[in-house]
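Problem 12. The chain below contains 267 residues. Write out its predicted structure in token notation.
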Amino acid sequence: MVRKISASVSFMFRELPLLERFAAAKAAGFGGVEIQRLDEGDPTEMAAAVAAAGVGVVLVNVGSGDYPSGGLGLSGVPGREQAFRLAAEKAIAAAVVLGAKFVHLAPSRVSDGTSRDQCLEVYAANAEAALAMAEGRTVSLLLEPMNAVDAPTALFTRIDDAGAFLRDRFGGRVGLLFDLYHLTLGGTDLVGAAGRHHDLIRHVQFSDVPGRREPGTGHIDFGTAFAALEAAGYDGWFGAEYFPDRPTADTLGWLKSFQNAAESPLY
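Solution.
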């Protein structure tokens, strides 16, 4: 079996202009791409570059406002509902233009003076609004738990809490984005989590720990983690989402072994 491996053009291939990254990803051996930062370019222009490169778009992110710079973000922040819904509408429309399969609702933080329960209610209402926007379109919505090391006040930092929330509030209408970097840095047992949440896991992302670099630079056992996910029934994309410290093509020694599921990755 050949695994489907995608590359984030928002994290990787940044040594190139945006519209050249899609062809570079294809030439490097990736069959799909992810776009975490839609604000870097125009979706119509990106769609043309995607088509010319012959890759598929697996995932796009809803804009997260000031979250990347340490702010609260949008998805679960009281008072920012309108800003989130505008960002969600933009992302879902872009996903349709790009042919993307998944839309990640993006993280947010809990502020001082606001309870987590308040933020969960806002997130739930915002997700319902996004589900209504996506109705009749071929996109699925995702929630991704962060890690409490990088983002101690993130609304979701434990996969079991996120899974319980999604089952209770959405009954599977919103899926889990299973990110090996965040889960490992947060102390999660990847094999156990893959088994517990197999019914919700719709997409997988990976980078090594520590440093969020390419596989082989840290200590994640990717072979065991991927095998556990596949044993639990996962057959979707595995998205590389790391920060290269040199030209991206020079960091891809892991790619061929990861694509071949008959080979255990040597890390």
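Discussion. The mean pLDDT is 96. Students who got a different answer should revisit the alignment rule from Section 12.3.
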